[in-house]
Amino acid sequence: MRKVVKATLFVLALFFIGMNANAQYASSSSYSSNVTDGGWRLGLKLGPNFAGFTGKGADGLNGRVGVHAGMFAEYVMPTNLFIQTGLELTLKGAKYSYSDRYEDVKVTANPVYLQVPIHVGCQLMLADNMNVNVHVGPYLAYGIAGKWKTSYDDDDDDDYGYDYDDDDESMKFFGSEEDGGCKAFDFGLGFGIDLDISLFRLGLGYDAGLVNIGRDGDYPMRNRNFYITLGYKF
Description:
The protein has 1 helix and 13 strands. The radius of gyration is 22 Å and the shape is elongated. Residues 25-35 have low confidence and may be disordered. By secondary structure, the protein is mainly β.
């Protein structure tokens, strides 16, 4: 809970600092050529995730490629500050593999979240129909689907001629402690930078989870995700 409060206070501080800086900038003569009329920007976004977990509970796990898709909404103020939110479906997770004398084993986690970012940012006009947006803030997410999947590859017989024909296994990623599942709620802090050219957007960002989604407090596991976004505004 203290991490949640600190993250919220950090975002609010950035917002008020930006408001003060833009108010001072608005009084200068150079500002008139860069100011926007403000208003809403809406759009769609899609792109790859490069996700993983951090913490003691993630020891041995490697990153994996996922995907995100959804919509975004931004309210731009006349001072070029903006508030950004939206709703996206995002596939995160991790994977690891190991081998022993009998078989090769691959384990993949593929949790799917509904995620809502709440960012504040500032846009810099580079030219007509071209601007750069920098934004930071928290996100809220809730897991709606996903599994831990374990696959086995045992092409060869062992030294005694026995063929280990193991079936692939899967279990729900989100569930109760008795089921070995993870917590569905997630909260974190993210930042991003976007390049807008006319109606098109190319963005980069990173989300760092602040909540232990694992069930073991001694071995926490938190989401991390670097992403690339292709967007279209309308």
